[in-house]
Amino acid sequence: MSIDIVVAAGPLLEDWRTIHNTIIPTAILSTGDVAERSTRHRLTLGYVDDELVGNATVRPPHEPDGVATVIVRILPDYRRRGYGTCLLYTSPSPRDGL
Fold first, then answer.
1. Contact 58/23 with Cβ under 8 angstroms?
2. What pTM was estimated for this model as a whole?
3. pLDDT tens, the chain, 98 aa long
């Protein structure tokens, strides 16, 4: 199984926002919210065969010995196929120069 990871920037931030708001309708984010979030976190999109299947957020640690947080969201039609696991393990980490 393979998933292509793309950094969500520019117009792709709207795709990231759409997935977030679809999966978490109780915490709707505006375009401005996502733009601001992208300055603090690494936002990525996951594609399988050119189909958008999910997104991820990598939050860097707040202190040198802290722990990073990775949040993966997979659209309902693509769940239970291993895409979330692939996105989790291929998402950039703070060691990758987040």
1. no
2. 0.84
3. 678 899 999 999 999 999 999 999 999 999 999 999 999 999 999 999 999 999 999 888 888 778 888 899 999 999 998 788 888 877 655 444 44
